[in-house]
Amino acid sequence: MSKEHTSAPLHAQTAPNGLPITLPMGIVSAGGCANVLGMDSSNNLWSCWFDKSNWHWQNLGAPGGTIVTSLGTLQAVGLTNVLGLDTNSVLRSCWFDGSNWHWQSLGTPGTTITLPMGIVSAGGCANVMVMDSSNNLWSCWFNGSNWHWQNLGAPNGTIVTSLGTLQAVGLTDVMGLDTNNVLWSCWFDGSNWHWQSLGAPGSAG
User: Fold this and answer.
1) With 90 as the cut, is the pLDDT of residue 8 above it?
2) Binning pLDDT at 50, 70 and 90, where does residue 40 land?
3) C-alpha distance from residue 66 to each of 27, 84, 88 (Å)
4) DSSP line for 15-71
5) CA 194, CA 99: separation in Å to the nearest integer?
6) CA quadruple 116, 67, 57, 1: dihedral positive or negative?
């Protein structure tokens, strides 16, 4: 999980040289400033950030792989990250250390990632959730020092649509719809993850 790029400290920079922003990456607060983030057509991550008076463009550099899918931003358990998948299913993170941004490879689960499912905190750890081509849910989770991949298994239905994550009223769930319009939840009991069918609209239950 190597560090690939370190940007200059936050300061005003010019607009992204006329290159189009091709992939929105999300919005996050870093260093007390709001950051609107997007990838350009040359695989550079740009931040348009607000210093409480003006907006500034800053180039945060490019990772070692071409980003094709955004997994959004993470701001939890002391982390500030922008996350994306490259063409080889490698999860890439651009993270903020309080002063600078750094690109880092978080690796791959060893299988093709087909569907981002969301980001959630479970057991005090940040979890980035994705489905693979065999219908397994994977978590890339952070234990405070390192990132780890974990296979959370597959439901009995093939997940084709992500409904994101739920963290409220004591629940921690990852939600998806299968090919038969059945809603599935992978939920955390405080120690382990479990798949559960929540049925389909109009079904008994």
Assistant:
1) no
2) very high
3) 20, 9, 9
4) --TTPPEEEEEEEEEETTEEEEEEEETTS-EEEEEE-SS-EEEEE----SS-EEEEE
5) 39
6) positive
**Predicted local confidence at residue 13, as pLDDT:** 43
Contact 165, 175 (CB under 8 A): yes
Contact 105, 149 (CB under 8 A): no
Token code pair at residue 147: 């990132």
Average pLDDT over residues 40-60: 94
Spatial distance between the Cα atoms of 183 and 95, rounded to a whole number of angstroms: 33
- With beta carbons less than 8 A apart as the criterion, state whether 83 and 69 touch: no
CA angle 112, 21, 99 (to 5 degrees): 85
- Strand 101-105 and strand 3-6: pairing? antiparallel
Nearest-CA neighbor of 92 among 157, 45, 131, 59? 45
Look at residue 14 in the predicted model and tell me its pLDDT.
44
